[in-house]
Amino acid sequence: MSIVITTSLRENAKLLAKAKTIGEKLNLPVIERNKQSAKKLLQGREGVLLVYENKLRLLNQDGSELSFHPDTAMLRIKSSHDALVDLLGTDSLKVLDTTMGLASDSIVMSHAGHDVTAIESNPLIHFIVSEGLKNYQSNSESLNQAMRSIKTICAESLAYLKKLPNDSFDIVYCDPMFSERIEESKNLDGLRQYANVTAFSEELLQETKRVARKKIIIKAHFRDDVFEKYGFEHLIRKNQKFHYGVIEI
């Protein structure tokens, strides 16, 4: 992966030191910005991680970018009801999100009062999103608390599940990358080239059944065959391009 780390245009000793610390954690090279444009920095590289005083911004060669912002989660929290929250019910549950990504689902579940652990297999995505969850400051104290409460783990989902004892979580949640691109989900464009595209499998299903005490919930494109193939109850959502599936334990 040809990615380097540098600072924003307002480079200073403090920012550069922060960039070097991040570089050591991610095992990625760090270069001084020297007022170079983003276009020049990207020449011959897959991406550039820009370090700001209070955020991280990943620029990709294809023009997309990735940074943490809980905007999607905020909209869902403000709505009168959320389909995923409705599926979980009103009791506080211990939830394992096996596909963290930008953590929108994890934030929504945490805000609804659930104890959420989120797994992300890509170290770069895990770091950017985890830092955002720890440091992003919104105007809502309940949202801030929901983000801070999420425990994040950098690991492959299947490998992590295999290490867990039986009945470790009430809910195991899976949101694999959709089989078809949804135009309305352009906020995911910066994530796609780094996302784990491993499809849901029978082995993964058996591990989720072993680990979950109450339910396994999956989110997938409405045309995906994962619902019927693995025995999920397919919950139709009219006028929505993604649906949920549930297996009761």
From TrEMBL:
Protein name, UniProt field: Putative SAM-dependent methyltransferase
Gene Ontology molecular functions: rRNA (guanine-N2-)-methyltransferase activity
InterPro entries in alphabetical order: 16SrRNA_methylTrfase_J, SAM-dependent_MTases_sf
Keyword Lyase belongs to the record: no
Pfam families (UniProt xref): SAM_MT
Lineage: superkingdom: Bacteria
Chain segments annotated as transmembrane: none
Keyword Transferase set for record: yes
Keywords of the record: Methyltransferase, Transferase
